[in-house]
TrEMBL record:
Domain Zinc finger CGNR: from-to ranges: 115-157
Protein name: CGNR zinc finger domain-containing protein
Extent of the signal sequence: none
Pfam families named in the record: ABATE, zf-CGNR
InterPro entries, A to Z: ABATE, ABATE_dom_sf, Znf_CGNR
């Protein structure tokens, strides 16, 4: 089974949704966090570190912290060269769950800079990895925030005309 770490990255960024106007945290209790981590390629341990890397990644993606804060999660990452008939590959031999997320963030930054970003709805705490061709995606989801924000703009336009 191959894990798409960029998907896990988006999922962990989106563990603090606003539900009915209230901030929530899917990793709030240890029991919830353990289940969530196990469902997302973790082993359900090191819950405090999982919350910390989530918080740091959110701050970095929102532009509220420098990416350097993420280096602390990479201290124990190790790659070793492996030769084979076609040449040489670097294989990741030691990277824990937080490190995998930070590596995924770095890869997204390299391949698709700026594509991982907060939802443009200021009242929404979710993030999106914009995979659209033009890179113009603004909402965590069109069915949720996209339509809501469009309806609001339409409403304020028509309300403006009535004056
Ligand atoms: Zn949203």
């Amino acid at each position: 089974m191959s894990i798409e770490w960029s998907d896990v990255l988006v999922d962990v960024l989106n563990t603090t949704p606003v539900v009915d106007g209230a901030n929530t945290d899917l990793l709030e209790t240890d029991a919830d966090a353990r289940d969530w981590l196990r469902a997302h390629a973790g082993d359900g341990t090191h819950i405090a570190t999982a919350r910390r890397v989530r918080d740091d990644l959110q701050q970095v993606v929102r532009g509220h912290a420098d990416a350097e804060v993420l280096n602390r999660y990479l201290a124990r990452v190790r790659r070793v060269p492996r030769v084979h008939d076609d040449g040489l590959d670097w294989e990741l031999v030691a990277a824990d769950w937080p490190a995998q997320l930070v590596l995924a963030w770095g890869e997204v930054q390299s391949i698709a800079p700026g594509r991982l970003r907060p939802c443009a709805n200021g009242e929404c705490h979710l993030f999106l990895l914009d995979r659209s061709r033009g890179g113009t995606g603004r909402w965590c989801s069109m069915s949720e925030c996209g339509n809501r924000m469009k309806a609001r703009r339409h409403y304020s336009r028509t309300a403006g005309k009535a004056d």
